[in-house]
Inverse folding.
């Protein structure tokens, strides 16, 4: 089946029907208390093809908390700094442990396994913070540029909730600092990290913002080359191997696309040279990934016959 002949809208409508039995099987994140208040039956999905067609369904325009999906954009931002070797401070291997786990840091001497677990993302945030007087603003501006939506901003209620319950992230930052792998003052790094996770977005915005990963580094919303084609390829490889934490293998098996999830219930996925797709549904599985979202993406690649495999 060629891409042009696929009835994406019809497929999204079928998916909306077919995911209904999966609502109520997962549970909203509650370790950030305000996320537990989001109605669990929300569902949105958006597809953007690289030739500019857009399809969406359900709550695809509604704002939700970007959470760990922000780690993808901070990584893209740092890889855009030409003089920065991040790979001496962060690994490129799947962790096989929970996104907020501390265990590997001890025996790997403060070097996180990859940039998508919390420890790795804190190092990436530290890099941005050490180069910028207003790192938080810089991260927000970058996301607004890529999504083409100036309305995406930090939800202060979510940021406060994260800050008040950020004990584990504080532990990660302190442990890495003890090994010399956090360079800015810890409270600053944590504050920037909590704020980036509290950015608001929608499925439509996410599908637009990750276009550089489908278009060899080019963003039609920013109207510029954001990354080299080589960096885009590399990030897609990291997403495939590390984007869904310790569920990454079974997600690749079920869906077959590089993707990034967040505990707000969003998942964004990329089919290089073809399309991007974003889904949102707040109830999570036990790995912290959207349960209905993963199901919807599995249906999407099965019905369209499109995946990287
Ligand atoms: N803000 C969350 C945290 O730091 C992000 C985690 C996630 O989305 N997996 O714990």
């Amino acid at each position: 089946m060629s891409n042009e002949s696929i009835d994406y809208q019809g497929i999204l409508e079928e998916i909306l029907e077919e995911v209904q039995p999966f609502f109520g099987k997962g549970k909203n994140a509650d370790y950030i208390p305000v996320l537990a208040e989001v109605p669990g039956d929300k569902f949105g999905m958006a597809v953007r093809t690289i030739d500019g067609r857009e399809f969406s369904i359900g709550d695809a325009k509604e704002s939700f908390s970007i959470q760990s999906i922000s780690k993808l954009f901070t990584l893209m931002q740092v890889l855009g700094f030409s003089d920065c070797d991040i790979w001496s401070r962060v690994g490129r291997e799947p962790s096989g442990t929970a996104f907020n786990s501390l265990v590997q840091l001890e025996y790997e001497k403060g070097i996180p396994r990859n940039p998508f677990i919390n420890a790795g993302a804190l190092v990436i945030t530290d890099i941005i913070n050490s180069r910028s007087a207003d790192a938080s603003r810089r991260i927000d501006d970058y996301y607004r540029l890529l999504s083409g939506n100036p309305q995406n901003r930090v939800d202060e209620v979510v940021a406060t909730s994260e800050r008040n319950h950020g004990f584990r992230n504080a532990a990660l930052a302190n442990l890495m600092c003890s090994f010399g792998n956090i360079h800015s003052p810890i409270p600053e790094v944590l504050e920037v990290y909590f704020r980036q996770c509290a950015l608001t977005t929608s499925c439509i915005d996410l599908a637009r913002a990750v276009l550089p990963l489908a278009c060899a580094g080019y963003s039609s919303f920013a109207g510029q080359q954001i990354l080299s084609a080589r960096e885009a390829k590399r990030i897609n490889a990291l997403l495939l191997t590390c984007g869904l934490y310790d569920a990454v293998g079974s997600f690749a098996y079920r869906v077959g696309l590089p993707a990034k999830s967040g505990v707000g219930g969003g998942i964004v996925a990329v089919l290089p040279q073809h399309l991007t797709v974003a889904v949102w549904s707040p109830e999570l599985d036990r790995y912290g990934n959207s349960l209905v979202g993963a199901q919807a993406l599995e249906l999407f690649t099965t019905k369209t016959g499109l995946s990287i495999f």
Summary: The two ends are 15 Å apart (CA to CA).
